[in-house]
């Protein structure tokens, strides 16, 4: 049958597995129930041969797992893989000589993915730790576990698993941090303006590694969305320190100041005291001026795309009395 499999020829998978179990159980019983006799007429060499046969059958259970998995008989595949993994425990008679062709953690890896294909999630959870010891497949195993939570419809378990994983090793899991930021942003919107699940999460990440760019950017985005421009500005500036050529962070830093200036400017018409109104106008101009270096850095990062910075720079230059520079921006728009 192994020859048929190697040549991609059809054969009875169920027959192979069933007879394999019958054979190994029979060999075990024979070894257990036959008394060894020595000498020319003894059975010692005969039993040694049987013992060797039983030891070699461990690999056949790996094949049985693969055959059953290919036939989408995932429960049988896992049963076969687990027999191989625990072969010397099930057949202690050959514990000293049985050597499988691959390590148990690799077999667990195969079994784990068979369980996923069969949507046998409890079995996946049971096999996960051992499968993760197979280093070559650890990344794929972890990814499958993450996907499986969503397949089960358990987004809370998905988020909790990712949270633990990303907080433990932020640098190795930045893509997953980005996923969780999107998740917690949605949760915060559903819960209302006072919800701060995102901030709490990214603060945990930053406490472990203060140089995770996406964590600071996510925090800045949350503050900006809530119109907390001072807090957002500080986080965007941190992003520029981590990644000096980051256009979005430079632009958003300038936009924080720009939005503050616009908000302050909108109050001037309602100020009846002329002296106070004048002070507020000067403060407004000052804040527009504070925005300029950040927009200019954004320009340096995206010099060939004036649509990304020329409008804001024109406004800032105009308000701060830099007419020539404002005119230059007009030409670019």
What attributes characterize this protein structure?
single chain, 333 residues, mainly alpha, rod-shaped, disordered N terminus
Q: Tell me the major beta sheet.
A: none
Computed CA radius of gyration, to the nearest angstrom: 34 Å
Q: What distance separates the N and C termini? A: 74 Å
Taken from the alpha-carbon principal axes, the silhouette is rod-shaped
Average of pLDDT: 94
Helix content: over 70%
Order of helices and strands: HHHHHHHHHHHHHHHHH
Low-confidence stretches: 1-8
Contiguous helical run count: 17
Strand content: under 5%
Number of strands: 0
How would you describe this protein?
Helices cover 74% and strands 0% of the residues. It is mostly helical. Among the domains are: 1-101; 244-333. Helix 7 (121-132) packs antiparallel against helix 8, helix 9 (155-168) crosses helix 10 (174-191) and helix 13 runs antiparallel to helix 14. The N and C termini lie far apart (74 Å). Mean pLDDT is 94; it is low at 1-8.
Short account of what is shown:
By secondary structure, this protein is mainly α. The protein has helices at 2-6, 13-33, 44-70, 74-85, 87-90, 104-117, 121-132, 138-151, 155-168, 174-191, 197-208, 213-225, 229-242, 247-265, 274-301, 310-319, 323-332.
List the topology elements:
Elements: H1 2-6, H2 13-33, H3 44-70, H4 74-85, H5 87-90, H6 104-117, H7 121-132, H8 138-151, H9 155-168, H10 174-191, H11 197-208, H12 213-225, H13 229-242, H14 247-265, H15 274-301, H16 310-319, H17 323-332
């Amino acid at each position: 049958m192994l020859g048929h499999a190697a040549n991609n020829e059809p054969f009875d998978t169920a027959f192979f597995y069933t007879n394999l179990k019958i054979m190994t159980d029979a060999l075990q019983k024979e070894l257990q129930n036959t008394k060894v006799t020595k000498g020319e007429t003894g059975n010692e060499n005969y039993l040694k041969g049987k013992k060797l046969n039983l030891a070699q059958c461990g690999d056949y259970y790996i094949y049985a797992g693969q055959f059953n998995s290919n036939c989408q008989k995932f429960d049988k595949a896992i049963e076969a893989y687990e027999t191989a993994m625990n072969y010397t425990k099930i057949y202690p008679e050959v514990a000293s000589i049985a050597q499988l062709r691959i390590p148990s953690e690799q077999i667990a890896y195969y079994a784990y993915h068979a369980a996923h294909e069969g949507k046998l999630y409890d079995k996946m959870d049971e096999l996960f730790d051992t499968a993760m010891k197979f280093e070559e497949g650890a990344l794929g195993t972890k990814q499958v576990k993450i996907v499986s939570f969503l397949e089960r419809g358990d987004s809370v378990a998905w988020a909790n698993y990712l949270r633990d994983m990303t907080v433990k090793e932020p640098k190795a899991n930045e893509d997953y941090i980005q996923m969780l930021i999107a998740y917690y942003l949605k949760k915060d919107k559903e819960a209302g303006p006072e919800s701060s699940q995102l901030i709490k999460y990214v603060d945990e990440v930053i406490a472990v590694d203060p140089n995770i760019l996406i964590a600071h950017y996510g925090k800045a985005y949350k503050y900006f969305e809530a119109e907390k421009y001072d807090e957002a500005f500080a986080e965007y500036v941190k992003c520029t320190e981590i990644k000096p050529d980051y256009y979005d962070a430079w632009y958003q830093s300038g936009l924080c100041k720009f939005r503050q200036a616009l908000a302050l400017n909108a109050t001037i018409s309602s100020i009846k005291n002329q002296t106070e109104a004048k002070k507020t106008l000067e403060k407004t101009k000052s804040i527009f001026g504070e925005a300029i270096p950040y927009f200019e850095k954004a320009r340096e990062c995206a010099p060939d795309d004036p649509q990304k910075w020329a409008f804001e720079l024109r406004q800032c230059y105009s308000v701060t009395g830099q007419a020539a520079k404002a005119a230059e921006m007009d030409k670019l728009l």
